[in-house]
Specification:
The chain is an alpha+beta fold and 107 residues long. The chain is 39% helix and 21% strand. It has one domain. The model has no long low-confidence stretch (mean pLDDT 87).
């Protein structure tokens, strides 16, 4: 699992890519559907080799779970679930299958 700074960097790069691609759209194509398509493409990517979707890392960052102080984030896997645990809370993602989803738990 990368350290918190690298994880925040991955989220920052994904956000920058989304903004860049959104701004590059012609005005007539700046629709919710097009923005959702771009978002799904970016946020479904994984954090390096971890298998953790960037949408889960983005959720953790947005909720302040990836603060710079404290112990590094840890990743746990069990029975089709991935859990990103930080000192400030956890994000749990069900991977694969029709019921894939995201759950957030503050510390």
């Amino acid at each position: 699992m990368p350290d918190a700074a690298a994880v925040r960097g991955a989220v920052g790069a994904a956000v920058a890519e989304f903004r860049s691609r959104d701004e590059a759209l012609p005005e007539q194509r700046r629709t919710r559907a097009e923005r959702d398509r771009i978002g799904r493409e970016i946020w479904s990517r994984t954090l390096g080799e971890t298998g953790l979707p960037l949408r889960a890392v983005h959720a953790a960052q947005s909720l302040g779970f990836l603060a710079s102080a404290g112990e590094p984030p840890m990743l746990f896997a069990a029975a089709g679930w991935l859990r990103l645990r930080t000192p400030y809370g956890s994000v749990v993602v069900r991977i694969g299958g029709a019921m894939a989803g995201l759950s957030v738990t503050p510390a």
